[in-house]
Amino acid sequence: DVGQKLKTIRKQRGLSQRELATRxxxxxxxxxxxxxxxxxxxxxxxxxxxxxxxxxxxEFFSTLE
Length: 65
What we know:
single chain, mainly alpha, 5 helices
């Protein structure tokens, strides 16, 4: 569940969807859709999001339940 995982990490880091979107160069609508699992991020988008948090791709997926 990539969307839920992203939302959890974003909240743990104290980031709003808007702030994360700005850092990652995406729209907050896109972040919202990803977090609701209504769309799947491309690898490039996910990399931008994780770089903006920051968390490594490996760390993100190693803790994905």
